[in-house]
Each structure stands twice: as structure tokens, then as C-alpha cells.
Amino acid sequence: MQVHPKDIAYFLLLISMSVVQLACTPEKVAEQDSHPFHSVPAFNPAPSPEYLSPQESLKTIYLPDGHHIELVASEPMIKEPVAIAWDGNARMYVAEMMTYMQDADASGEQQPASRISLLEDTNNDGKMDKRTTFIDSLLLPRMIQCVGDELLVNETNTINIYSYKDTDGDGIADVKKQVYKNDAYKVNDANMEHQRSGLDWNLDNWMYVTYDPVRFRYTNGLMQVDTMASGSNGQWGVTHDNYGRIFYSRAGGEIPALGFQINPSYGSLDFPDQFNAAFSEVWPIIATPDVQGGSKRLRPNNTLNHFTAPCGQSIFRGDRLPEDFVGDYVVCEPVARTIRRAKLVNDEGKTRLKNIYDHQEFISSTDMNFRPVNTATGPDGNLYIVDMHRGIIQQGNWTKPNSFLRNKIDSLGLDKNVGHGRIYRVVHDDFEPGPQPKMLNETTQELLGYLDHSNGWWRDNAQKEIIVRGDRSVAPALVKMATGRQKVDSPLGRIHALWTLEGLGALNKEVLQSALQDDDPQVRRTAIWISESYIKANDKTMIGSVARMKEDKNDDVKVQVLLSLYQSKDEQAKQAIDDMLDLYPDKEMLVATKGALDRNEDVKAFGSKLGNMIAADRSLILEGASIFKSLCASCHGEDGAGLAIGGGSMPAPPLKGSKQLAFVKKEEIIRILLHGLTGPIEGKEYSSVMPPMGANSDEWVASVVSYIRYEFGGRPPRNPDDIPGMAASARDSVAGFTVKTSPSPAVTPEEVKRVRESTKTKDTPWTLEELEKISK
Fold it and tell me: Is 160 within a domain?
């Protein structure tokens, strides 16, 4: 049986295999000494869960000496904020999940009662003093991105994206337009934590999201889609640095940073030692008993011992904090009531992360309702923090009655603290915040001057605004900037000029050839990256120019040469890659990058394996691949081998080689999906508990089980008659067997329904001992 090309393309869109990058600076960054803190309080073993006013809560937040925190907005102006975005005039849009966990049972969560507010600072004092409900009656808005005078929005339980616009200046959206449509894609609506986030407009003019293996480009008022064979990454939050490197985090896998070694369009690669085990430890200043992982996630003093909810990460790229802050990685841990600041260390093109503080966090609070969920560099050059400020931070799947977490919520009364929210900015004592931009009111020519701004927010938004306008009249000036014929203050100006030309479709080979000779390695690397359109088209001149850079003195440049030349099948490109690996056999980053690229190619060819399956089985497996990628991979890893980054333990067991995935144990894996699994696995404890997924439909469960069995399960018996419950006379007529009587790993919704009915009284997760008794 032949596989339809669309099936293969869709399969490639969903499958991801496994785990390299372009470092942010050309030299190795020195590791810093710990920064001093002022008046950090004594550890509080029994903090109060009582509500504190914004002014009271500010007094509980501790930062290093020289920094202070200011309130930008709070309730009742905003409630339940989760994400912020500024337009070109520094007006702030706030996504507010008004129905998120209003009680421990998540009552009414799926009601379309959320909103996006528009906040303005009319006197430039840093505090928002005007609020308008820009969009109302939304279902838990997840992603927002400003493009010109429009706001792109995605809601929960859909991957469709809409543009909203205010045409009469009253601060309320009156025009709604769909810019991306995909109603066929099924979303896991049983757990809203496991859905996409982001829509981050990167340096390369693509917008990146978590979970789904796609990226978007805004072109002529619509979102164009590019698929990434090895998938996307992360969970809540995605960000980028000055040179276009993407950073994810994964709360489900308890991983505070990943995916930053190479761009996900090239494949997937993370190193086990990109940070060490100590980096995964967190340091609250109060007891934090409300953890979903139970007692094994707590120290003897009742504090969270390890990242469990990393989210909302950003790279600080502003200009109003000390210079040594620029380029640092910032990530929230709302369960610990802390925010981590880490230094990026370049090790021959490979990047490592190091906590800047010794057994402390950059920001900590003694307020139990302090729940930082997002961070961002602001137009004024400072660091902004989104504090959902509430009692419960975990979604309803983790707060079931009688669970460890639910008992803590009930005993502490955390469910009472809802309907609040704060936005702060971190300010340094020695710096004045920068001015507000007015980009939407300026000419395209005036915007060019901001491509070299010291604040990365201004550079990004000037580039974006010029591209959204599509004004190519500035192309000659951009060429002068990119080639150095017009002086700019830093290489970043030339880098943004190159990408702005690329976004306008106004770049040519002559400009790239000039940039390939630039004195700055990051400009050279950028030129190589952008040259891929020529390399893929088999342009011999460009391939030759890039190939000659295989011995560049900078490691980042060499890695990009490998990444870009790999996109060509030309013999000259292949030979240059072979030469590089021969020249630098001990360069871990180069060797690992080549491995990631090879695996990415394997993913692209993988869909052909479905060719001998009947259509019904193929459909189930494709749908299951989608769900696994967006949900299960957070703990089990995209390749089913488990996740273990930074020397920590795996949050969940590997699926590859699991005895529970033996071909004949079909009903066992169905039981686990329906009701969950707890206790040791093969004698080993894991930090996460497999939650019950029975709230999903029979078809949903069948598709996940089908994919897991297909991708990670054991091989079928040689004789189908050996499969329990399968009569030889019936095997050809049963769904899941091909006309050649070869057993398929797929299971049907009907089979799930039968198991669901037989286990309907089960109200606790299974243990392996229970499952083994049933199978005997």
C-alpha cells in the first residue's frame, strides 16, 4: 500500500527524534563571582498564604544590592496576567487568563471569559495609568505578538491565529482577521498546560512557538508556515538572544533551559553537560510545600529542591541595567517563588549555563502568592516580570482530590487567592529608564537609526516594523549599513540591517559576499546563515565562498558553515564538511552538530515506514504522534529515551525498551493511559507521576497508544496466533492487521472503550504490581 505524500508530510511535521548551537559571543565568557545581596531575611519555615497588597508584596521581594523593583501595574487594572507585548509606541498588551484555576477543581476554566488589556503610561513615569479592554470573551489567550498596528492572538484549544486592530483609536479592537487557519489539527484540550506558547519574532524573521514543529513568517498580512522535521521544543515560553539563538524551557521535564545549541530548523541537539546538576537546584527563601511532585521534591526544610515549573524565560538585552547583565538568561520558577539569572559560557561553540549566584536566586520572595510566569526586556531598557500572583499555580490535572498537592492547597487555603496580578520592572539604582518609543508614528527612514540601538527591544521592533511595512525604499540605506559603508556603532547594527534586507526580499549576493569578509565573526556567521537560499539553489559561487570559511578562526562561524553547507547536495559542499570534520575531530560542537543534522535527515525519511499500513492504522499513528510531541515528550523525551539534562534525574522512565510496551501487552498500556501509573518502575523512582488521561476520548487514547507502540514498542510475535485473545480464524478481519496478516501496533477506539468499561471503578493510578497481577 502506498503512502499519500500528504500523510508523509504531516508525519514529518509531527515526529521529532532527539536532541548544539551558535554561541552568543565569539570568546569564552569568564565565570562571574557571586553578586552581593542586601538584607535577605532569615529563612521562613512557615510562611503565611494570606493575600498581600501590591505595596506590601513589594517589600517581600529580594534582589542583589544595587537593584530594586518597581510596580508597573496590578489588580484591579489587570487580573491573572500571563504574557505581555509592546507595540512600537510602547503600549503594553496583557494576556489575562481570567478563568485559570479559580478553584482547585478548575471550575469554569473552559469558559470564554478571558481578555487582553491595553495599558498605557501616559506621563512616562514607568507606571501604567490607562487601561482598555482591547479584546474580551477569549478562551485563555496563550500567545500575543504585535505587528505594526495589529495584534496577533492565539487562544487555548486551537492553533488558529487571528489579527486584531483598533481603527478608531478608542483602544478597543474593532477589526478581526484570521491570519492562520488549521481546523484539522486536534489539540489536547484535557490539559491546557500542554499547549503551545511563544510566537517570538526572532532575528531571522521567523516566529517560533513551543510544542508544534512549525514556525511562522508574517507575509502580506498572513502567517506563512514552515515545518521543522525534528520538531520544536519547550513548554511555556520561548525567547532569543542578540544573534538569533532560540531558548526553550520545559516544566514537564523539569528542565530550565534547552534547545539553544542550534536553531530547531536544523534539528534537535542538547548536551547532558550544558549545565550541571547544581544548576537544576533552586533556592527559595521560604518553605514551598505546594509541589505536585510530592515529598521527594522537597528538602528536609520543606523547600523545593529542583526546578519543577521553569517558564517565561528571556535573554536580557536592554541597556538600563549594568553591562554585565546583557546577554544573561533569566527564567522563572513560580513554585519556588524565585527567578534565576544565569551566565552563558561559550566553550568552543558549545554553550553552557552557570547560575551567577551561589545557593541563591536573582529574585526571591517571601510572599507565597508571588508567581512569576514571564519575563521580558522592555522598551525602557529594563527587565519586566509578569507575576500571576495567586495561590494555585498548577493546572487541574495535578490538583485532584486526595493528591499530595491538593491536600496542601486545601490546608493552606491557596484556592482563595485568585483574581490578582502584578507586572514589575527591575531597575538599577545607577540608571534612569530609557524614553518611550514612537515608532508607529515615524517614517521608515527614521526607523533605520534604531537598528543599531543599544536596547535589543528597539533593534528588534525597528526591524519588524520596517518588514511589516514592506517599504523597500530604504533598501539602499540598509545596504550601506550592512556592508559598513555607513558607520554604525556596533556589529549588531550590521546584523540587523542584513536581516531587514532579507525580510524585505531586497538582499543580493554582492551584499552577502561583502558581509562574509566582515571583521566581526557574528556578522560573518549571519551572512553564512542568510546565504542558505543560494546554497539550497546550488549556487556554485556562494557554496565556494562559504566552503572557503571552513577554517575560520571563530568556532561559531565554523559551526554555521557546517549547518549551512549541509543544506546542499553539491559535492563541493559535501567535501568541505568532510574536510572540517577531518581538520577538527576533537571539536565536540562540530561533531555533535553533524550528528544532529544526520538525525534530522533520518526524520525526513522516516515517514516511508508507514507505507504498508492500512489507512485507519496510519491515521491513528499520525494523530498519536502529534499528541506525543505536544504532551508526552515533555517528560519522556522526543525520542522516548527519557530526559536527563544537567546531571539531574529523569522525570519519567524511558519508553524505549520498556517491558510495558511488549507487543502482547496492549491492554496494559491502555490501562496506564486511562488511569495513570505510580510507584517505582523497574526498581527506580521518578520525580513525576504518570497522570491519568482518561478524561480524553477513546480515539485520543487509542491514537497515543498506537503511536507509542509503533515508535517505541516491542516487535510482534512471529505468529499472530500467539497474541492473547486473537483467534487465527479472525485475524484477517480485525482492525489492526494488514491483508498480509502482519500484526499492527495500532489499537482501536473500540478496544479502548472495552478497557475503559472494565476499569471504570478504578480511581487511583496503577502500580506495576497491580498490572502484573492482571496480566497473569
Answer: yes
